[in-house]
């Protein structure tokens, strides 16, 4: 699927440039930063969710915002799992497994 292709490409990006996500995570949890930085990060995540709802579907139906939030949260979590234990975790395989779980969890026609 297109979402699977996107996540595979994103996994490769994470492996090549992990510092970009680590900087984002650092900023996200730094309470000393002003509200402008936190607002910008919140807007980035809104764009991430909107990208999912606007461009990806399952069975021809767009993802709802809550599902998009779950996907974005999973991507962040998959990155963290890989980042803290790269010898044990392959981020691309984790993303594939997640998409397989989504497929298994939906009702078949």
Shape: flat
- Count of DSSP helices? 5
* Regions with little confidence, pLDDT below 50 for 5+ residues: none
Strand order of the largest sheet: 1-2
Strand content: under 5%
Helix content: over 70%
Cα separation of the termini? 19 Å
Q: Could you tell me the radius of gyration in angstroms?
A: 15 Å
What's the mean pLDDT score? 86
Q: Write the element-wise H/E pattern from the N-terminal end onward.
A: HHHEEHH
Helix/strand class: mainly alpha
The major sheet is characterized as: 2 strands, antiparallel
What is the number of beta strands?
Answer: 2
Question: Can I get a quick summary?
Answer:
The protein has 109 residues and is mainly alpha-helical.
Q: Which characteristics define this entry?
A:
109 residues, mainly alpha
Topology of helices and strands:
Blueprint lengths: L1 H15 L1 H12 L5 H21 L1 E2 L2 E2 L2 H20 L6 H15 L4
Antiparallel strand pairs: 1-2
Helix pairs in contact: 1-2, 1-5, 3-4, 4-5
What does this protein look like?
With 109 residues, the chain is mainly alpha-helical. The chain is built from 5 helices and 2 strands. It has a two-stranded antiparallel ribbon. Helix 1 packs across helix 2 and helix 4 (65-84) packs antiparallel against helix 5 (91-105). It is flat. 12% of the residues are buried. The model has no long low-confidence stretch (mean pLDDT 86).
